[in-house]
Amino acid sequence: MSCLFCKIVSLEIPAEIVAESELSVAFNDISPQAPTHVLIIPTIHTENAAGLAKMSATITAALFTAADQIASDRGLTGYRTVFNTGADAGQSVFHAHLH
Ligand code: 5GP
Ligand code: ZN
Fold it and tell me: What pLDDT, on the 0 to 100 scale, is given for residue 1?
C-alpha cells in the first residue's frame, strides 16, 4: 500500500498526531490554511468521503465526533469541516480525510 495517509496511520511517516482512536487518527495539516487545521482520517483506507459513507456510518460519524472533541478541548467556539471529494474539487490525497 503506497497511500501516504495509511503510512501515517501505521507510523511509517511522521505526523503531529493530536488525537487517535481505533477508528480514526487526527493530525496537524502540514500546510495549515487556518490557525487550527487538523486532518481526521479513518484508520481503514477508503478513497474519499463517498467511499467512507458507503463503507461505514459509524466511522463517518467518528470523524465528526473527533473533530468536535478536538475543538472542544481547544476551547474553539466554532469550526468548519470540509471533505474534498475528487481531484476536480481539489482532493490531492486519496485517503478520505476531514479537514
Ligand atoms: P486535500 O487537498 O486532498 O483535500 O487535502 C490534503 C491535505 O493533506 C492538504 O491540506 C495537505 O496540506 C495535507 N498533506 C499533504 N501531505 C501531507 C503530509 O505528508 N503530512 C501532513 N500532515 N499533511 C499533509
Ligand atoms: Zn490510505
Answer: 66
